[in-house]
Amino acid sequence: MQSSELPVLKKARPWYKAIYSSVLQQNLRRLDVAFKNFFDGRGYPKFKTRQRFKSFSYPPNQVKLESNKIYLPSIGWMRFFKSRNIPDGFNLKTVTISLKADGWYVSIRIENKDVPQSKPKDLKQVQAVVGCDLGIKKLLALSNGELIENPQFEKRQSRRKAIRQRRASRKKRGSSNQKKAYAKLARIDQKIVNQREDHQWKTAHHLVRLADVIVLEDLNIQGMIRKCRAKQDENGKFLKNGQSAKRALNRLIRDCSWGNLTEKIESVAAKFGSICVDVNPKFTSQKCSHCGHIEKENRNKERFLCLNCGFLADADIQASINIGIKGLKTLGISQSKLLMVNQKVTPKPEMTGSSDREISVSLEIEPGNPQQLNLFEWVNGEAIPC
Question: Which region ranges are annotated with the description Disordered (predicted)?
Answer without folding.
Answer: 153-180
